[in-house]
Amino acid sequence: LVAVAEIDLNADLGESYGAWTLGDDDSLLDAVTSANVACGFHAGDPSTMVRTVAAALERGVAIGAQVSYPDLVGFGRRDMELAPEEIIADVLYQIGALEGITRAAGGHVAYVKPHGALYNRAARDPVVAGAIATAIDRYGAGLPMVMLAGSTGLQTAADAGVKVVPESFADRGYTPDGRLVSRRERSALVTSPDEVVARVLRMVTEGTVVAIDGSVLRLGARSVCVHGDTPGAAALARRVRTALEDAGVEVRSLG
Amino acid sequence: LVAVAEIDLNADLGESYGAWTLGDDDSLLDAVTSANVACGFHAGDPSTMVRTVAAALERGVAIGAQVSYPDLVGFGRRDMELAPEEIIADVLYQIGALEGITRAAGGHVAYVKPHGALYNRAARDPVVAGAIATAIDRYGAGLPMVMLAGSTGLQTAADAGVKVVPESFADRGYTPDGRLVSRRERSALVTSPDEVVARVLRMVTEGTVVAIDGSVLRLGARSVCVHGDTPGAAALARRVRTALEDAGVEVRSLG
Amino acid sequence: LVAVAEIDLNADLGESYGAWTLGDDDSLLDAVTSANVACGFHAGDPSTMVRTVAAALERGVAIGAQVSYPDLVGFGRRDMELAPEEIIADVLYQIGALEGITRAAGGHVAYVKPHGALYNRAARDPVVAGAIATAIDRYGAGLPMVMLAGSTGLQTAADAGVKVVPESFADRGYTPDGRLVSRRERSALVTSPDEVVARVLRMVTEGTVVAIDGSVLRLGARSVCVHGDTPGAAALARRVRTALEDAGVEVRSLG
Amino acid sequence: LVAVAEIDLNADLGESYGAWTLGDDDSLLDAVTSANVACGFHAGDPSTMVRTVAAALERGVAIGAQVSYPDLVGFGRRDMELAPEEIIADVLYQIGALEGITRAAGGHVAYVKPHGALYNRAARDPVVAGAIATAIDRYGAGLPMVMLAGSTGLQTAADAGVKVVPESFADRGYTPDGRLVSRRERSALVTSPDEVVARVLRMVTEGTVVAIDGSVLRLGARSVCVHGDTPGAAALARRVRTALEDAGVEVRSLG
Prior knowledge:
By secondary structure, chain A is of the alpha/beta class. Helix content of chain A is 38%, strand content 17%. Chain A is globular, with a radius of gyration of 17 Å. The two termini of chain A are 24 Å apart. The B-D interface holds B 70-71, 73-74, 78-82, 86, 117 and D 70-71, 73-74, 78-82, 86, 117.
């Protein structure tokens, strides 16, 4: 019955910037197994990165490069038309910057996950997904790319020879064709904590999710993204983890 | 008579940014043995870095991280009061970013050289020099730090256990106590090409330079910095290199 | 036979940034009647703006706010998905910033012209053109908006009650439906100086241009944009102006 | 007995940036009479500025340009070595940007107050204070400059013919020579709400404050700065205002 024996829980972390703080990183780090660390393009100045990386390493949480379009004021949530070569350069820069900080703290970057508008674009646009995959391939450390389960972008990266980690979202609504409902829609977010927990259990133990039209999607996720920037997010992430462990699923980071 | 059998020639490179170009990098790369590549904080967007690194690797020129204060509009030439922990984080970020791009091109960052106001501050301020040295030490790749020959900052870094490369400047005036004359002074720059060549020969073969008051300073430089952003800079660098080779000095990159 | 008795010549100016210079502003300012001054979002730091504004006022050249997406590294040439309220705020900010600098020099901002990707988007997207028009309307100084002659965006702004200045481009190829050929296409730029001069004469005296398929477009332009960032641009602009004046057209700024 | 019949209460507002929020602006705006609105250099993106200005105008709170060094990641709190002409350009840019947004909302910028490190530098450095005063003078709207009561900078600006508003700080410790205790010192902040209220009452009704060594300083402030970015700040500002009104002081904005 159990679709996967183990699952990774990832969350966006280190999204403060200078004097501005966002999210309750310390609590969230106690609940997840992988930290998508902002690398300075949408959030995460170098000092914030140093603190985030130290806190993650202390807890044995895996560190991933949360790479973004260069759009600080828009938090990386606005799509931009970048040339593939620009995306490749930007991704290499961000992975490297995080690795510089992480190796100084005794660790290593373990994976790459695009952020915000770059993620959404990569999920549906093979050119953008391919550029990210090319950057990861050229970087040469065998890093996996975390991408929406079932998406075109995931397939593109896999076809390019990059390791991929299909992921699902604990609290996001799905369209019948497996996309995330846009944040501008009412059904974008699942707001009931009980429902979030139930959805994640189903995602992991059955490998499926119910889309907004009631149809059942097969996901095959190996990581589940929980969100961190809403009140109660850390507590919910903890509930999700406990429920998974109670169901006999091993919650652990990838690789 | 020859003070050193070999010398490194370094220059600032990759200091374009987006649509703006600065310097004649291709010509300069044919003359020098080490490229101080801008890492995005004072110049050098990721795409520029990719191009600069490729051009340097093609010619066998060593790649160094030219780390700076975060001051794009001021080109890193304005002193800033950063906390040591901020400097450490900024330096790690920049070294890592350049390494990310360089390893993707088949190379590695070979050294670290502070830029502009950070360089001048580090030369005289042990706290700042110490912060840079700490970053290099934590980074852990045994990278040398290029710093003004005879400066407090050079000594600080050496005392901290970091490899140092004392450098002199081909076309900068020196005060009697071994500092560079401020760019705001008339005697900051040696403008005669013949004089520049003669000074470098003396720096390398005798290990000395004549300060603005006529006194003779002993430098002990193992690298000479030639500048690149003035018209004729590349040709002058080529002349310097030829003169050194004609004098029997091997011109080659460090390490 | 003369379609218009007078015409404005506009060019992008003040597109340097910090240590980086772009274009030969002083020469170009001697040829044009309106200066589209960059306002800091794609180029043009405050000190550059001060210099550009002083040089324009000295020559009696009208000053316009060349407003852009916030994308310094991309020089405002990459389309971005901004919400209308973000565009309104960004445009007001940029007009105001330029006015602050211009009034200190004894002048006033005389018009608004979007830059790069924002221009191209506004030309075809009524939501974006409407947001810019809304900002201009709220600003309340009756500033005209310079926009592509015959475009949807021009009509949108006019319908919103904003004064509009239809413009044509001296050296850009036109599609049969009146759009500019994308810069990625070979026919994007008219490179022959003689042809540029002939095209402008025709644009102004007949009000038409020949599109890339040979069809004749009616433009009705009241301003012609000449480019400034290519070698020889200022000399070409001067030739265009002389040719117009020789043909009996008064070349003068708007308003 | 009452030193002044009326007093202004000012606070830093609009210091959010993009996705990051800072301070409880709406509550604070109910307590103060003047809003120092961040202009984008240390905080306050254009969209935040639009919201802040609208909220201030709605309540009849005066709007001031809180001008800063260009240092977003450092929140303008790190001193920088800018040339006077750079400061002039930066200040004009920021005043103008805020005025562009404010006039679109039906108001006008009423004063200028430097922020953070620029404020502290201006208080003690006549060159920096003079540059800010020059910008205000060139801007030409007769805007007053808010500056530390009794400081060199206040005098410099007054000597330059700029209107000045001497201000004191409700919750900051004073050195015997009238400077603010550095934020790095323990006595930098007065943390007891009761003491803050008592200090402000004394500042306003007697015109004095007790320095950290027990000596009594004469301040002559016409505005008192209350802080906004700490929990309870808005409530404390409201208490201060009520206490002043109960003591018969009219609390109203300047000009």
